[in-house]
Structures are given as C-alpha cells and as structure tokens.
Design goal:
This protein is an alpha/beta fold. The chain has a single domain, classed as NAD(P)-binding Rossmann-like Domain (Rossmann fold). 43% of the residues lie in helices and 12% in strands. It has helices at 4-22, 45-62, 84-87, 90-98, 108-119, and strands spanning 25-30, 68-75, 130-133. The chain has a 3-stranded parallel beta sheet, sandwiched between helices. Helix 2 links the parallel strand 1 (25-30) and strand 2. Helix 1 (4-22) packs parallel to helix 2. The chain is elongated, with a radius of gyration of 16 Å. Keywords: NADP, Oxidoreductase. It holds the Pfam family adh_short_C2. GO terms for molecular function: oxidoreductase activity.
Length: 144
C-alpha cells in the first residue's frame, strides 16, 4: 500500500534534478495539523502527516546545497468538498469553532495564498518550516 508520504518522497526524488537545474527550487508539501497535535483523525492519518512534516525538515537540510527550499503547509478545517459533509453538522461545526481562536473554518484561498507565498522570491530565506494555516487551533490552550 502506497502512502501519501511515499508518493511525496518519490515525486521529490524525480523532481530533484529539475529543481536543482533551476538554481532556485521550492517544494511546498500539504500536511495537516493532525501531524502536529492530536485530533480525532485516527492512528494512521496523523502519523503519515507527521512523516511529511519531518520529510520537509530533512529535505530542507539535505537539498539546501542545491538551492532547493522545502516547506509545508498544515491546515486545520478548510471549507472544501472533502469536509463539507462534516461541517454541515451543527454540533461538529460548533466543536471545531470552539477550538479555533478565529472562530471560523478556513477558506481554500487562505491555504493557496500561503503556498504561493512560500514559492515566491520573497520567501527565499524560509526553508524547513511547517506553517499552520489553522485560525490559531494549534496554539489554543485549555479554555473553560
């Protein structure tokens, strides 16, 4: 069984020569906050996302000599067709919002904007980072 991690790694290996030849390559993985903190996503999903986060860091160090930057975006709930059926449930949506300091779910363009930024020359000194696009979810402590 091929995992998201394995596919990502193999794709990077194939892309490496082209990224190196460009003189200024950038890889941006999409992970999940499930790779950073516990959420009710199951014992298979979360470790594969954590593996992508670690791959991001390892490749950032290994490929820096080739001027290839590697970063990762880790979203929380983003309003997409993948989670639409969950967000339609009032109780579930309230639970998500109660754990999110910005008190809403994210929009797809909020993730794509971060991905685009990480590919731009303006981000040329950013590598090995896992950027949470999560409305503050991963930094939210215990609230009464």
């Amino acid at each position: 069984m091929s995992t998201n991690f394995e596919s990502s790694y193999h794709f990077c290996q194939l892309a490496h020569p082209l990224l190196k030849a460009s003189g200024n390559g950038s890889i941006v993985f999409i992970s999940s906050v499930a790779g950073l903190t516990h959420i009710d996503s199951g014992s298979i999903y979360a470790p594969t996302k954590a593996a992508i986060n670690q791959l991001t860091k390892n490749l950032a160090c290994e490929w820096a000599k080739d001027n290839i930057r590697t970063n990762c975006v880790a979203p929380w709930y983003i309003r997409t067709s993948l989670v639409e059926h969950l967000l339609e449930k009032k109780e579930f949506m309230e639970k998500v919002i109660s754990r999110t300091p910005l008190e809403r779910v994210g929009e797809p363009e909020e993730v794509s904007s971060m991905v685009a930024y990480l590919c731009l020359p303006a981000a040329s000194y950013i590598t090995g980072q896992i950027v949470s696009v999560d409305g503050g979810f991963t930094v939210n402590g215990f609230n009464r």
